[in-house]
Design a protein that fits this description.
alpha/beta; FAD/NAD(P)-binding domain; Polyamine Oxidase, Chain A, domain 2; Guanine Nucleotide Dissociation Inhibitor, domain 1; 3 domains; 7-stranded mixed β-sheet; 30% helix; globular; binds flavin-adenine dinucleotide; Flavin_MAO; oxidoreductase activity; FAD/NAD-bd_sf; oxidoreductase
């Protein structure tokens, strides 16, 4: 298929456009994990490839930042990996990025209505014994997401229309009436998705649960929410971003930075992709990003009505991770794991994080709490987060040495995180358009994955699937 990989060179981040003088087999738009995985597979399949990335770095939603005073490396985006996430695990092995276990000893806290309930960290949160109505409701959600659930094609579920007509809030309100049970049902969803329960289709989140496994292990809510044996089991030494950084390095000059793609047009013979670094011609294009931002590109002659419906029906969650660095892991001395399911004022979920030589508490700010803080000065955000840590872990939380935070919602090439969710009606009306190619344009991005959609593993899966599609057409 086409010219030998590496035959073409493009200036990395050059101010001048470096348009192709010939045609490549495939143009990948986006150097997040899905785009990099697609490019890697395409190159391995013998295709000539160029990757156009809007930012000046690879990785997309996987990104290392450094704390301002101490220069400590922090995961601003994706951090954790767990069992059945074998595709990202294989890449980590291949590129020599080691993992270590997330601290999960002592007690975790369920903080509800100002009251802290301690429970053993080995209990998968928030499935604590004392949850009343939430127990049967969570069991029901799990049952709806099991037993032959069409993972990755939820529109094929026998009750798809009904489940996609409800928000997660409507679905759970039918089952629980007490405030604490409502809070628990909300956090079980918003911890992974960072949206309000009335923003997301119930069918979407049931598919998300069903997707938290692999071809041999059905997805479970417990695996989704757990640390041990779950999606938060391990983290990467040096930050998860080591993986995309090394993948991009291996792809070399094929990756062109600072090249936001503005339009993709095609005729029967080739696609023409216009970016801020010039215009590129290719036989196939892989758009490797969330459907909440792929609509920012102009497509000519145009997209299908269903694909446009997807662009309208998906939006990103609102999220930041706030990390505070401490001289000691004082929470451990109190027998605490560092994990909390909290009240969202403004932090709703916390973990002990890791970077060489530092003790870190990391908290997620999600949904409306994040939207409120997005346009507040950072000092306000820091003050509120630290006071929230004081509620959860005690006054020692005020003695932080440094911190790090990154506002994903304000990033034009992400528009939020961790994942794009669909509003009711979107999956049943437009779902198949998630992966259906339009002309020469193929779609990747974690939102198009079957298993582990929303996660790094899903991103890698989706990129490899899109590359298979393209190689199938090229050969
Ligand atoms: C705060 C946070 C925490 C998370 N935690 C975890 C976790 O612990 N574990 C886990 O597995 N996952 C986690 N995730 C999710 C994970 O980061 C994503 O699932 C994954 O990185 C998505 O990869 P992607 O390639 O599909 O999309 P992206 O990473 O969004 O990549 C898309 C790329 O396209 C580029 N782009 C966009 N528009 C254009 C354009 N017009 N032209 C050119 N380039 C463009 C973007 O700059 C970006 O590089 C988290 C995400 C966030 C934000």
């Amino acid at each position: 298929a086409g010219a030998a990989a590496g035959a073409m060179t493009f200036g990395r981040g050059s101010a001048q456009a470096a348009p192709v003088d010939g045609e490549v087999d495939a143009i990948v738009v986006g150097a997040g994990l899905s785009g990099l995985a697609a490019a890697k597979s395409l190159v391995e399949g013998g295709a000539s490839v160029v990757v156009l990335e809007a930012r000046d770095r690879p990785g997309g939603r996987v990104h290392n930042i450094t704390s301002p005073k101490l220069g400590a490396t922090l995961d601003a985006g994706a951090e954790f990996i767990g069992p059945t996430q074998n595709h990202i695990a294989a890449l980590a092995r291949e590129y020599g990025v080691a993992t270590l276990p997330t601290y999960n000893a002592g007690d975790s806290i369920f903080f509800d209505d100002g009251r802290a309930q301690r429970m053993s960290a080995s209990v998968p949160l928030p499935l604590i014994p004392d949850i009343g109505q939430a127990g049967p409701a969570l069991a029901r959600a799990q049952a709806d997401a099991l037993a032959g659930f069409p993972v990755g094609e939820p529109w094929k579920h026998p009750h798809a229309r009904y489940l996609d007509s409800l928000t997660w809030k409507q679905y759970t309100d039918q089952m629980v009436s007490t405030q604490s049970a409502r809070d628990l049902m909300q956090i079980a969803m918003s911890a992974p998705l960072s949206v309000r329960p009335d923003e997301v289709s119930a069918l979407y989140f049931l598919n998300y649960i069903a997707a938290s496994g692999d071809e041999n292990n059905p997805g479970t809510l417990i695996r989704l929410l757990s640390t041990d044996d779950g999606a938060q089991e391990r983290l990467f030494v040096g930050g998860a971003a080591q993986i995309p950084l090394r993948m991009a390095k291996a792809l070399g000059d094929r990756v062109v930075y600072n090249s936001p793609v503005r339009s993709i047009s095609w005729n029967g013979k080739r696609a023409t992709v216009s970016s801020d670094q010039g215009t590129f011609a290719g036989r196939r294009v892989v758009v490797a990003m969330s459907p909440a931002i792929s609509g920012q590109i102009d497509y000519r002659p145009g997209l299908s009505a269903a694909r446009k419906g997807l662009h309208r029906g998906y939006h990103m969650g609102a999220v930041s991770k706030f990390a505070a660095l401490y001289p000691t892991a004082f929470w451990r001395k109190k027998g605490l794991s560092g994990q909390v399911y909290g009240d969202g004022r403004p932090i709703d979920v916390t973990f002990e994080s890791y970077t060489e030589g530092h003790h870190i508490l990391m908290g997620f700010i999600s949904a409306d709490a994040m939207r409120r803080l997005d346009h507040q000065p950072e000092s306000v955000l820091v003050r509120e987060c630290i006071e929230n840590f004081v509620d959860y872990f005690g006054p020692e939380a005020r003695d932080y040495l440094d911190y790090g935070v990154f506002k994903w919602d304000l990033e034009p090439w992400s528009k939020g995180g961790p994942v794009a969710v669909s509003s009711p009606g979107t999956l049943t009306q437009y779902g198949p358009a998630l992966r259906d190619p339009v002309g020469p344009v193929h779609w990747a991005g974690t939102e198009t994955a079957d298993y582990w959609t929303g996660y790094m593993d899903g991103a890698v899966r989706s990129g490899q699937r899109a590359a298979r599609e393209v190689l199938g057409v090229l050969s």
